[in-house]
Specification:
Layout (H helix, E strand, L loop, with lengths): L19 H37 L13 H17 L9 E2 L6 E2 L1 H7 L16 H27 L4 H12 L2 H6 L4 H22 L3 H14 L1 H21 L4 H21 L1 H13 L13 H6 L18 H9 L8 H17 L3 H7 L13 H17 L4 H17 L10 H21 L6 H28 L13 H13 L6 E3 L9 H4 L7 E2 L5 H7 L6 E2 L4 E2 L5 H6 L2 E7 L6 E5 L6 E4 L12 H9 L4 E2 L4 E4 L3 E7 L5 E4 L5 E6 L5 E4 L6 E5 L5 E8 L11 E4 L1 H14 L3 E4 L3 E5 L6 E8 L4 E3 L3 E4 L2 E6 L5 E6 L4 H30 L5
Parallel strand pairs: 3-7
Antiparallel strand pairs: 1-2, 4-6, 5-6, 7-8, 9-21, 10-18, 11-12, 12-17, 13-16, 13-18, 14-15, 14-17, 19-20, 20-25, 21-24, 22-25, 23-24
Helix pairs in contact: 1-4, 1-5, 1-19, 3-11, 4-5, 4-7, 5-16, 5-19, 7-8, 7-9, 7-10, 8-9, 8-10, 9-14, 10-26, 11-26, 13-16, 13-17, 14-16, 17-18, 18-19
């Protein structure tokens, strides 16, 4: 009897099928070589950018500040707010934040400032180190863009992985990324979106992976809709070019166009729950006075294409490393590339560049809006197309003579443009040195077809020139930009900031009272950064209703009203339930904190109140909202000269004096007291100190604004006992319990309460309450129905509900083909077909 077998023989595999284990092994084997090019591109890009930090001694590789402009004022604070949200430390949720601006929508801010997927790395580190993650987002995103571009180039034309990787890095290190967007994490996602959408275009042309194409569109728009819009328009150009250069029938072109349109619409609809509320929030935001687009001179525009340039101000940064430029300039001469391909790609690239200079098309690139800042924010599109030309030239083995001609054209252009305003300091090094090394490397690469040992030398030279030139360009851009006043680096973590944060913690009491982090501010969004609840808020979505509520009360602002600052004023504290404030201590880098009585977040007003003080004074407006007379507003006698003005007023001795002059810029001093800075509208109501025993206030203002005026009633004298009585009354008649939720608030009112319940937040669009709302000087207010002892309000961003509906339809459209295919395959596998 035969022995029983110890194992079961599976027998021969079915014809045409490979065992699962072998398929997995083959998949890994194939994927590893494919990853080499993208990985090389990522490493070159990230290494070059970080090497520039090291060369500059920038934080965290030195003591030079890293954060500049909005990176310090917006992006780091918003990333800290994201950390608080994920770790359950936020006063609010994804839809609304009670921190900053006395309560504002958060969904649009999240989509705009935190959409870059790498931003979520901030939640994985201690809160004190969130700023390091914000800095790291830049090389990570640029490296990812380079890696994705490497994949896209491979779909346009086959070629060695390492050559695609080098040119992918050329794209990731383009001038727009180094000079314009290196400190703007959400915009940098547009650098990833462009080649990602290019891959989606190729799938649509090939008639496959339609759901994948739609998901790539969604990923681009989730990251940042502003630069994704520009990348989507660029993808339309790429689609047109590819349809014109591929051998396709008219029917195939129509099908590709239909697939691309469907993928774009589906992908964008998937983002509608974020996109639509952001669009509506933008429409309701405080308007800005953006200037009309004025194209730069042709010489400046062309100079922006030269490698390693960094022109001042709102100039175009269109360049890529000299290796890419030399190859791109040889593209039209390369006879190995079909003539139609050369003509179409070259014409498309020139037309894209020209569209940047033509106001109507420039407005189209920016979504029919005038950009508030650098008007050439779509420059990365041109750089991407230049890299495509470079790759097509390299993949078709350019002749040395054509390469020399390209390098010569680059040198001639640099010579002709050398007198352009602020011609880049590193440009000559990049053009002559980088251009020469690039030509040498490419010639060695061509000779390596017969002498294989030259190929590694060429590879080292190509990687080295891109790495060195881009490092110098990034360091040079940092150095030159730092000379501009707006770009002075600001610290985002140090001993003072840590002590400031701890001081806020010592007196926090939300929701019993708000805590104002005080001044001086580290960032415009200190309330978010320090986990406080003050008025400080800086966002492109600050609602117009918030501006109209806070500006008349004496809060300082800038950026046309999209940035608000605090004001050390006890009447404003009482209006907005601020019960604690942080101030600088006597020792350097120390902070002290004070608590004081404050009404609850919800107060009850029995009827209208009109201040007896002059109606055009900020003090009368404060009293009207407070509902009590607490100021004396004296007449002011003026004297002095245009540059040194004197003001004299008489008040009750011992009263607290305040000053408000939003039109003056200079310094302010009361009597022999210290000077205080006046920064026109940015400076809100300012304390002058106690009125002396003589009852006379002598105020000196030094200013260079000859025509500016202090206004009719700049001085107000506060009667502290009267204010204390008003606070006590509002507390006694106000809500007995207040329970703010993530995006709502509920208050229990005293028995028999009547009149109007006023919530200490501005009536931003999106609030709905359990009773009819009413206008109360821009604050959220609810009429109290008879017999009501409880009110509640909920905030829902405008557009969220239809946005969710649109996303659901898009998800259905996305899943339908896959579901149908799955069911069809399942039916075929069943016995007898069913």
């Amino acid at each position: 009897m035969a022995p029983e077998p110890t194992a079961v023989d599976p027998g021969p595999a079915a014809p045409g099928r490979v065992p699962a284990a072998r398929r997995a092994a083959l998949g890994v084997t194939r994927r590893l070589p494919r990853a080499r090019g993208p990985l090389l591109a990522f490493l070159i890009t990230a290494a070059a950018f970080c090497a520039a930090w090291v060369a500059r001694g920038a934080f965290p590789f030195g003591n030079t500040g890293r954060a500049l402009n909005d990176q310090a004022n917006q992006y780091v604070p918003f990333h800290r707010a994201l950390w608080d949200l994920v770790h359950g430390q936020a006063a609010g949720d994804l839809l609304f934040t009670w921190r900053g601006g006395f309560g504002q929508q958060f969904l649009s801010d999240f989509h705009t400032y935190l959409g870059n997927p790498f931003s979520w790395l901030a939640v994985l580190v201690p809160r004190a180190h969130v700023d390091l993650v914000v800095f790291a987002v830049t090389p990570l995103t640029m490296g990812t863009a380079a890696a994705v571009m490497t994949v896209y180039l491979g779909r346009l034309s086959p070629g060695p992985w390492w050559q695609r990787g080098v040119l992918g890095a050329v794209y990731g290190l383009c001038g727009w990324a180094l000079s314009d967007a290196s400190y703007i994490p959400m915009w940098l996602w547009g650098l990833v979106a462009l080649p990602m959408l290019g891959i989606a275009v190729e799938w649509c042309l090939e008639g496959r992976r339609w759901p994948g194409a739609a998901l790539l569109v969604a990923l681009a728009w989730f990251g940042n809709f502003y630069t994704a819009m520009m990348a989507t328009m660029a993808a339309c150009v790429l689609l047109a070019v590819r349809m014109a250069t591929r051998d396709m029938t008219a029917r195939e072109r129509l099908r590709a166009l239909w697939r691309a349109a469907g993928a774009a619409a589906t992908g964008i609809l998937l983002t509608l729950p974020l996109l639509l509320p952001s669009f509506l929030s933008s429409g309701a935001a405080q308007p800005t006075r953006a200037a009309a687009f004025q194209p730069v001179g042709l010489d400046v525009f062309l100079a922006g294409m030269l490698p390693a340039t960094h022109l001042w101000g709102g100039r175009p940064r269109l360049y890529v490393a000299s290796l890419g430029l030399v190859l791109a300039l040889s593209f039209v001469l390369n006879g190995r590339i079909p003539r139609r391909t050369r003509l179409v790609w070259a014409a498309a690239t020139v037309l894209v560049a020209a569209s940047f200079q033509f106001p109507p098309t420039q407005y189209v690139w920016h979504g029919l809006a005038v950009p508030n800042g650098n008007p050439y924010r779509e420059a990365f599109v041109f750089s991407g197309m230049v890299v495509v030309l470079a790759w097509l030239a390299l993949a078709h083995r350019p002749r040395p003579l054509h390469l020399v001609a390209g390098a010569g054209a680059l040198a001639v252009a640099a010579f002709a443009l050398r007198h352009t305003d602020d011609f880049g300091g590193w440009t000559w090094h990049a053009v002559l040195g980088g251009g020469a090394v690039s030509v040498l490397a490419l010639v060695l690469l061509r000779l390596g077809e017969k002498r294989r040992y030259l190929i590694p030398v060429a590879a080292v030279l190509m990687v080295g020139v891109v790495l060195a030139e881009s490092t110098a360009a990034a360091a040079g851009a940092d150095a030159r930009r730092a000379r501009e006043r707006w770009a002075k680096p600001i610290p985002t973590s140090n001993r003072s900031i840590a002590d400031h944060f701890d001081a806020v913690r010592r007196v926090e009491g939300w929701p019993g009272h708000r805590t104002d982090p005080g001044a001086p501010q580290t960032a415009y969004n200190d309330a978010l950064a320090l986990r406080a609840e003050g008025p400080q808020y800086y966002s492109s979505y600050l609602p117009e209703v918030t501006y109209r509520a806070l500006e008349p009360l004496g809060y300082g602002f800038k950026n046309d009203g999209r940035t608000f600052f605090g004001a050390d004023n006890p009447v404003l504290d009482a209006i907005f339930s601020i019960g604690a404030r942080v101030r600088p201590g006597q020792a350097e880098d120390t902070w002290t904190a004070d608590r004081f009585p404050a009404p609850p977040l919800v107060t009850v007003r029995s009827g209208p109140y009109a201040s007896p003080n002059p109606a055009d004074s900020v003090y009368a407006r404060q009293e009207t909202v407070l509902g009590a007379t607490v100021y004396a507003v004296p007449e002011v006698t003026r004297g002095g000269t245009a540059s040194e003005r004197t003001y004299t007023a008489r008040c009750t001795p011992g009263a607290e004096a305040y000053w408000y002059s939003p039109a003056l810029y200079g310094t302010l001093a009361a009597g022999d007291g210290p000077e205080t800075a006046l920064e026109d509208a940015r400076t809100g109501v300012t304390p002058l100190g106690r009125v002396p025993a003589s009852g006379t206030l002598d105020i000196t203002v030094r200013t260079h604004k000859d025509k500016a005026d202090a206004g009719t009633h700049p001085v107000g004298c506060l009667d502290r006992p009267a204010l204390d009585a008003a606070v006590a009354r509002l507390t006694a008649t106000g809500a007995t319990a207040v329970r703010p939720s993530g995006h709502g608030i509920e208050a229990t009112l005293p028995r028999g309460a009547s009149g109007t319940a006023v919530v200490a937040t501005t009536a931003v669009p999106g609030w709905s309450c359990s009773a009819p709302t009413t206008d109360f000087h821009g604050l959220l207010a609810v009429r109290i129905p008879p017999g009501t002892d409880r009110i509640s309000c909920t905030f829902t961003p405008k557009g969220l509900t239809p946005g969710l509906a649109g996303a659901a339809l898009a998800l259905l459209a996305l899943l339908t083909p896959a579901t149908t295919s799955f069911l069809r395959r399942r039916r075929l596998r069943m016995p007898n077909g069913g």
